[in-house]
Design brief:
With about 280 residues, the chain is α/β, with parallel strands linked by helices. It has a single domain, classed as Rossmann fold (3-Layer(aba) Sandwich). The chain is about 30% helix and about 20% strand. It is built from 8 helices and 14 strands. The strands form 4 sheets. An 8-stranded mixed β-sheet has the order 3-2-1-4-7-10-14-12, with helices on both faces. Strands 5-6 form a two-stranded antiparallel ribbon. It has a two-stranded antiparallel sheet with strand order 8-9. Helix 1 links the parallel strand 1 and strand 2. Helix 3 packs across helix 4 and helix 4 packs parallel to helix 6. The termini are far apart.
């Protein structure tokens, strides 16, 4: 299966890309990165140069060219908040911005370009999106990152979960086969050693933990391409603490545990109605 994996220079995207590279009998992945420096880092680590392409995800023509001939597109791009060096005078907390691209640009327009590129490959092209929990709550703290209040009282910037949710709805409305995964807090810890738990609408039963290793998220993204039960599904993903339960190995059973539940997109809001 030829698969375009965006965000392949990042952490979760790179984990997904490398897991596919390790399974040449199943996948011929192409990692999409945003800079030549990111490509060089991957190539220096042993990734074949022909398996990496440099493109700006907001350049629809470049993304379309990268996706040519692919049977699936895995979207692992996301705007990344960073401290601006300023302090909020009211709260005393650091002010965050998005120096590499606002959520509207990265999480909406960039994802839209990738979904459109997938659609151009044919109606059976599978779109897999790595998103985030919290989308049912417009007041979630992540939405406040990078948000600015203008002199007339209106706001601009930020709203990362609302822009992600807009892209998710766009993928669903495209009628392409889709899998949308909402991980909890991402951990840089070993994968394959925890029991994974799924739920919908920011409610996950069976554990109070709301985090999950990136390697496990990547494993679910990969499984979504192979297990038919993941098609046309949108769900949340966390893990139990290490040592609590048995490590998940049956990914078909994992998604089957959802029954017929899918995330309800009538909950929460998308970015246009958030101001």
């Amino acid at each position: 299966m030829r698969v375009l994996v965006s965000g392949a220079g990042g952490q979760t995207g790179q984990a997904c890309f490398r897991q596919m590279l390790a399974r040449p009998e199943d996948f011929a992945p192409l990692g999409l990165v945003r800079s030549e420096e990111s490509k060089e880092a991957l190539v220096s680590s042993g990734v074949p140069a022909e398996c990496v392409v440099v493109a700006d995800i907001t350049d629809a023509a470049a993304v379309l060219a990268a996706a040519s001939g692919c049977q699936a597109v895995v979207v692992c791009t996301s705007a990344k908040p960073a401290p601006t060096g300023e302090t909020n005078q009211e709260t005393g907390r650091p002010v965050f911005g998005f120096p590499l691209g606002e959520p509207e640009i990265v999480d909406w327009l960039g994802q839209k370009a990738q979904i459109d590129a997938a659609a151009a490959q044919g109606p059976d092209t599978h779109v897999v999106i790595c998103s985030s929990m919290g989308g049912t709550d417009p007041a979630h703290m992540l939405n406040a990152l990078g948000r600015r209040t203008e002199t007339d009282g209106t706001t601009s910037g930020g709203d990362i979960l609302l822009w992600k949710r807009k892209a998710e709805r766009y993928a669903i409305d495209s009628k392409l086969p889709y899998t949308i995964v909402h991980p909890g807090g991402l951990l840089n810890e070993a994968g394959g050693v925890r029991e994974l738990v799924v739920g919908v609408d920011d409610v996950v039963e069976g554990t109070d933990n709301r985090s999950v290793p990136r390697e496990d998220v990547a494993a679910v993204l990969v499984a979504a391409l192979l297990e038919p039960g993941y098609r046309f599904r949108s769900f949340d993903l966390v893990s139990k603490p290490e040592g609590d339960g048995a490590a998940t190995a049956d990914f078909a059973a994992l998604v089957k545990s959802l029954g017929d539940r899918n995330c309800d997109y009538s909950l929460g809001r998308v970015a246009e109605t958030a101001k």
